[in-house]
Amino acid sequence: MNLLIEAVQWLLDPANWGEPNALGMRILEHLAFSGAVVLVAAAIGIPVGTLIGHTGRGRGAIIAITSGARALPTLGLLTIFGLWLGIGLEAPFLALLVLALPPVLAGAYAGVESVDRATVGAARAIGLTERQILTGVELPLAAPVIVGGLRSAALQVISTATLAAYISDTGLGRPLFLGLKTQQYEMMLGASILVALLALIVELCFQLVQSAAARRAEPQNGRQHRAHSGARERIEA
Amino acid sequence: MWDAPGIVGLPDDREEPRVIEFDAVHKEYPDGTVAVERFSLIVPSHRVVALVGSSGSGKTTLLRMVNRMVDPSSGTVSIDGVDVRSMDRVKLRRSIGYVLQAGGLLPHRSVADNVATVPVLEGRSRRQARADALGLLERVGLDTALADRYPAQLSGGQQQRVGVARALAADPNILLMDEPFGAVDPIVRDQLQAEMRALQADIGKTIVFVTHDIGEAFALGDEVVVLRTGAEIAQQGAPAEILANPADDFVASFVGAGTAQRTLRIRQVDGRDVVVDGDGRPTGVLER
Ligand SMILES: Nc1ncnc2c1ncn2[C@@H]1O[C@H](COP(=O)(O)OP(=O)(O)OP(=O)(O)O)[C@@H](O)[C@H]1O
Ligand SMILES: [Mg+2]
Asked: ABC transporter domain: from which residue to which, for each copy (chain B) (predicted)?
């Protein structure tokens, strides 16, 4: 209990927010690094997953790869990449990418695949091109699941990004590892609390985005009111 | 009473031909199911041809060969003498109105946006297309207040009307209708059929209408084609011909099932003339 109070005191100590610890800077680093990993994972995972979901081809391969990747220990990967790429951001970036890709891929392909085939067939039958089907039908209907994949990727990356400090000098892992090394446990715990808070905030943001996506995919569950008043306005106009 | 609504006196601008021709069309699906066996039929311009047959007789397959959702294994489908296989799929589909068996509306788009889909893709402004959509909704007997609802907020019958409105939106010359009134109760169905007749008298499209209800085929088709399994034509002709002269037992049993409901008799009840159907169930009162 004492340690917890000390950790909170450490967090509240203005000295830790200015130089040389500059917690604000660490938080930004942590967020930027995690965000970059998730962005790259999204840039690779969403198109690939969407294509697999749309065509139904390569499904087996992607399930094998993603479940295989999920089984890899991130710390082990980090060590291997570190030995290969040396000190710096590259190794943790790659290790976290391996962590983030499976949920993003799975979300994209499962989301697109779960769209009612009859709806897709109908869109095709009235003359939508494959591209229009993808962007106008499958993606909006799959969006809640896709965002769900991004959400779990982001959470895992934010909590695991502390490992980056193991091999490079960045993010909230820095005070965490420093505290461990110098037996300043209030520092270690304080940094952990910050990581948890960050994860919580990001989680909340994703929840908002996800429910917005769900409202668009299933507008009948929540936009009735606006829809109806819209109709009335137009008819009166 | 089976007289089809002959389309007379169409305005000149609708006189351009829109003939659909199936020539020895054969379809075997990859799993070996032969859905259609050497089917030939000419669907004349501005006429309604009703394909009627039991479930699995190949009706949907035939329709989908017209808009190239299915390509025949052999034989050709042509429109005004042009093999559809030489046409661009997307252009072809946009030029044909298709009412799907299960509605097929896009669940995340409002009713008006669903109706406006193809016109917008074809470059009409969203505003204009939505305004046109409201007109079309009225035309198929829907309250325009429904325009901003989503498909899941409509009844089955309303959804099917939206499907019809969507098929009409790009003003196609050809309409393919796959059991468009399948999911509604008999009363709404009769009403939709009556509206459909009035609409067709007005717009004069070339329509292939699929149904498994012979009564509906008689009510809507200028020509009725009775199909057996494999889309084999059991009989084809005007409703009155088929009714008066069923070609064989198969057609007779099909027609019989329809006539039981449709043959009406008058029975005196309490001094009034009550109309009863073939099963003796009252359907109405005769006014004199
Ligand atoms: N994609 C497909 N792959 C394999 N077989 C199919 C496919 N689509 C249809 N069939 C088969 O082809 C036959 C004709 O099917 P079709 O859907 O054309 O019948 P239908 O007359 O429209 O039936 P319903 O009245 O039930 O809609 C059936 O035996 C069906 O199982
Ligand atoms: Mg069918």
From this structure: 20-255
